[in-house]
Design a protein that fits this description.
Blueprint (H helix, E strand, L loop, with lengths): L4 E2 L20 H14 L4 E3 L9 E5 L1 H5 L9 E13 L3 E7 L2 E10 L2 E7 L5 E7 H14 L10 H15 L9 E2 L4
Parallel strand pairs: 1-9
Antiparallel strand pairs: 2-3, 3-4, 4-7, 5-6, 7-8
Length: 186
């Protein structure tokens, strides 16, 4: 089932998410719905806060970038539960990011190119791995969501000032997208 994506201005997007346990109600169905919602909106990642749930869950699929001919180290399709970034390393690199919760806004974000991450998969098996490049960046972006951080907070001050009116329009629901969105009550 395609779920509405919560737009900039929704309080859930600013909350630090809670860990979940294996008995989380209908977790398999939720994950299925998140994949469907993400693909419908043409995203490469989606975090639970973006569908209104303040839980430490996100999905990432960078295989589709590779299929579109983009160079992607470690392309993967993965569910991340209760993820924890253990380490971020390397020289900062700039890459343009966007977000399904903040449509029509893109901006250059500096991030480190390598992360060490510990997480659980959908069967609650624990994993630890190093990710690099674009895949690391997508994971960092989605991880920010479960920490209550939006990519626009990483933008340079002048860019933040320039997009302020667009952000206000998104908050008010004055944006057109090809997927369902839930806007903050004004």
């Amino acid at each position: 089932m395609k779920l509405p994506i919560y737009a900039y201005g929704q309080a859930v997007l600013r909350q630090q998410a809670e860990e979940i346990q294996p008995d989380y109600p209908e977790l398999s169905r939720l994950i299925e719905d998140m994949w469907e919602t993400m693909y419908h909106a043409e995203g490469v990642g989606l975090a639970a806060p973006q569908i209104g749930l303040s839980i430490r869950l996100f999905v990432v699929d960078t295989l589709q970038l590779q299929e579109k001919g983009k160079q992607v180290d470690q392309a993967l399709k993965q569910v991340f539960i209760n993820a924890l970034i253990l380490e971020e390393t390397g020289e900062l690199w700039t890459y343009e990011e966007g977000c399904l919760s903040i449509p029509d806004i893109r901006g250059d974000v500096d991030r480190q190119p390598e992360i060490r991450l510990r997480w659980m998969d959908e069967q609650f098996a624990e994993h630890e791995s190093v990710f690099t490049g674009v895949t690391a960046r997508v994971i960092q972006h989605e991880y920010d969501h479960i920490e209550g951080v939006l990519f626009v907070e990483h933008l340079k001050p002048i860019k933040k000032q320039m997009i302020r009116p667009k952000l206000e329009n998104i908050r008010k629901g004055k944006v057109k997208v090809d997927y369902k969105m839930k806007f903050a009550k004004t």
